[in-house]
Automatic annotation (TrEMBL):
Name recorded for this polypeptide: Phosphoribosylamine--glycine ligase
Matches recorded under Pfam families: GARS_A (PF01071), GARS_C (PF02843), GARS_N (PF02844)
EC number of this enzyme: 6.3.4.13
Organism whose genome encodes this protein: Halochromatium salexigens
Gene Ontology molecular functions: ATP binding; metal ion binding; phosphoribosylamine-glycine ligase activity
Family: Belongs to the GARS family.
Chain segments carrying region Disordered: 212-235, 370-389
NCBIfam families listed in its UniProt record: purD
Biased composition (Basic and acidic residues): 213-223
Keyword Glycoprotein: no
InterPro entries found in the cross-reference section: ATP-grasp, ATP_grasp_subdomain_1, PreATP-grasp_dom_sf, PRibGlycinamid_synth_ATP-grasp, PRibGlycinamide_synth, PRibGlycinamide_synth_C-dom, PRibGlycinamide_synth_C_sf, PRibGlycinamide_synth_CS
Pathway where it operates: Purine metabolism; IMP biosynthesis via de novo pathway; N(1)-(5-phospho-D-ribosyl)glycinamide from 5-phospho-alpha-D-ribose 1-diphosphate: step 2/2
Length: 459
């Protein structure tokens, strides 16, 4: 089967890498892809705009594409899935109307309110003065969100009234996010621990994926400005079987039922960003209408099932016929970012160490000591785990190729992802591999996974 993956980030590299492993896969194309997908075994880049539906349709017909898989949010919100389906192509990705769950924070909040899905209280504003007056009334802490798509950067967790007012001024006064910030949602700040809960949906059918958690803040200790994500790990120790059932019952099932009731049938991945409160209750922070990035990278490192078959089952309305099987190991991904991200950053820096020997064991003890993590059980296998699976994988996001050289081409440049017997060992392996890679002004957090480790269990 021929597959077309639409997108250019680390998530799309991971999707292409995993789908290329399927016995059913013949040719795997990525439009436009990046420097990593360009050299990935069994994968081909295609120089197409992810939001150019007409060009994508022409290519899919020419190459006899059997499945289109949309990775990022922008094509979904632009209606690319609708266009592909209307052209008779099989597409794993929700419709433009359903994608409003991610494309408009106001739509998502009103949807949750209509269907009794737990979330924070909120108000929506288009006028600067009204928003500022409301802030003076409610005080802080609050969360100020750009209504539209802002690449994961349109959320400000304001601990003080001054921070909240500055966020409103930036969005409604200065137009920082353009049309995406022309309307803002101001909501109560929820307390607890964040969890990423991702499922594959086909109408009424739902297949949960492995649990995960990410780190959205730029700086260690989960401080600093929000980013698209600085790292992630799977599984999420906080999500017990009982909590998973509660999330399904109180969040996922009402969401899917609500979409169907409103005439918005959903096919594709659905991500609920949740806050788990001290009372154990899950509350929705946000929806994404696709796989998360960087959660996808550790999740797919753990997936034993055929991803292509799972996607085909979703688009064919037969999710109950398949199952998602997971490796017992944990997986953790560390994002290596360009200096200045999520603000302004330079591009075009050469990256070295991508082809370095991957004997992580030699550095795992040092890395673990640096971040206060246990390495767990030593696999003693260098680049492979005791199951023979690849121990570490460098997924590219903001990269491009120039001849034989790989250059930086974005804010989040790489996601170095590794397996381990537990989260501590996965972290040690990922950091050992990251230490082998260099580019100018590179930075990454040294504490990815700290929340799991502090819980006293890392599996």
């Amino acid at each position: 089967m021929n597959t077309l993956i639409i997108g250019a980030g680390g998530r799309e590299h991971a999707l292409a890498w995993k789908i290329a492993q399927s016995p059913q896969a013949e040719r795997v194309f990525v439009a436009p892809g990046n420097g990593g997908t360009l050299v990935e075994t069994g994968v081909e880049n295609v120089d197409l705009d992810p939001t150019d539906a007409e060009a994508l349709i022409d290519f899919a017909r020419d190459q006899q594409i059997d499945l289109c898989l949309i990775g990022p949010e922008a094509p979904l919100v632009a209606g690319v899935s609708d266009a592909l389906v209307a052209a008779g192509l099989r597409c794993c990705g929700p419709s433009q109307q359903a994608a409003q769950l991610e494309g408009s924070k106001d739509f998502a909040k009103a949807f949750m309110q209509r269907h009794g899905i737990p979330t924070a209280a909120y108000r929506t504003f288009e006028g600067r003065e009204q928003a500022l007056a409301y802030l003076d009334q409610v005080g802080a802490p609050v969360v100020v969100k750009a209504d539209g798509l802002a690449a994961g950067k349109g959320v400000v967790v304001a601990e003080t009234l001054a921070e909240a007012r500055a966020a409103v001024e930036a969005m409604l006064g200065q137009g920082r996010f353009g049309e995406a910030g022309a309307r803002v949602v101001i909501e109560d700040k929820l307390l607890g621990e964040e969890v990423s809960f991702i499922v594959l949906v086909s109408g009424e059918q739902v297949l949960p994926l492995a649990t995960s958690q990410d780190h959205k803040a730029r700086d260690e200790g989960d401080r600093g400005p929000n980013t698209g994500g600085m790292g992630a790990y799977s599984p999420a120790p906080i999500v017990t079987p009982a909590l998973e059932q509660r999330i399904m019952r109180e969040v996922i099932e009402p969401t899917v039922a609500g979409l169907r009731a409103e005439g918005l049938p959903y096919v594709g991945f659905l991500y609920a960003g949740l806050m788990i409160g001290a009372d154990g209750a899950p509350r929705v922070l946000e929806y994404n209408c696709r796989l998360g990035d960087p959660e996808t990278q550790p999740i797919l490192m753990r997936l034993e099932s055929d991803l292509l078959e799972l996607c085909l089952a979703a688009t064919g309305g037969r999710l109950p016929e398949v199952e998602a099987r997971w490796r017992d190991q944990a997986a953790l991904g560390v994002v290596m970012a360009a200096g200045g991200y999520p603000g302004d950053y330079a591009k075009g820096h050469p990256i070295s160490g991508l082809d370095a020997a991957r004997d992580c064991d030699s550095k795992a003890e040092t890395s673990a000591a640096n971040i206060g993590m246990s390495t767990g059980t030593d696999t003693g296998t260098g680049t492979r785990t005791d199951t023979g699976e690849q121990e570490a994988k460098v997924f590219h996001a903001g990269t491009k190729r120039d001849g034989e050289q790989t250059l930086t081409n974005g804010g989040r440049v790489l996601c170095v992802t590794a397996l381990g017997a537990d989260i501590g060992e996965a972290a040690a392996n990922a950091y050992a591999r990251a230490e082998q890679i260099q580019f100018a002004d590179a930075f990454y957090r040294r504490d990815i996974g700290h929340r799991a480790l502090k819980r006293g269990t890392s599996r």
